[in-house]
Amino acid sequence: MGDPRRLKKKYKTPIHPWQSARIEEEAVLIKNYGLKNKREIWKMEAVLRRFTELAKKVIKASNAQAEKERTNMLEQLYLMGLTDKKDVQLDDALSLKINNVMERRLQTIVYKKGYANTMKKARQFITHGHVLVGDRKISSPGHIVTRAEEEKVAIAPESPFASAEHPERTVQRKEIKPKKKGDTRSKWGRNPRKRRGERR
Predict the structure, then answer these.
(1) Left (φ > 0), alpha (ψ -120 to 50) or beta: where does 34 sit?
(2) What's the rounded Cα separation, in Å, for the pair 45 and 152?
(3) Which residue has the higher pLDDT, 25 or 199?
């Protein structure tokens, strides 16, 4: 038995760390979901792997216990919001992708509800204790939001970001004036084609 003070990792690192295809996929996930590092991807992959391995185990078995595990697993997938219907098949569980799990993270839910104007801001709101899930303050952006919890996600009433008109919540768009035809001036007012010391 190991030291109880040293918790085991809840994820597995890639066997081949320098695969270009996987690195590109991870880079896209980090950008789209505002992740801090690849460790957050591996944690979500561990959640997905748990259901995939259980589905394969249930498919191989054909006893009453396997049927019970199958029902419980499909119900859990529905409650977590990973499937749209309760009466899904095991093939649907096996076809789940990492994006399905990413969409259930608290950070993604906060952004999609319009509480933050970017994924990065959504992460900041959560880690600084501005987001409530029911009556609890959740400070983990990777918290998996269940169907029951999704409606209870809100900004804390005492938070300065509780107002929907707060500039950190509303999308700020800069007005870009179109350039006139033939206008070669830079934003500093100089003609970039004419260098200092050149004759006009």
Answers:
(1) left
(2) 26
(3) 25
Among 156, 103, 111, which Cα is nearest to 132's?
A: 156
- Candidates 158, 164, 166; CA nearest to 128 is 158
Q: Which two tokens stand for residue 183?
A: 């206008």
Query: Going from the N-terminus, what domains does the chain have, and what CATH number goes with each?
Result: 9-103 (no CATH), 105-168 (3.10.290.10)
- β-pairing verdict for 136-137 and 153-155: unpaired
Task: Confirm if 58 and 90 have CB atoms less than 8 A apart.
Answer: yes
pLDDT for 108: 96
Residue 131 forms beta bridges with which residues?
A: 155
Torsion of CA 27, 11, 146, 63, to 10 degrees: 130
Sort 111 into a burial class: Cβ within 10 Å, 0-12 / 13-18 / 19+. Answer: buried
Distance CA 137, CA 135 (A): 7
Average pLDDT across the chain, whole number: 84
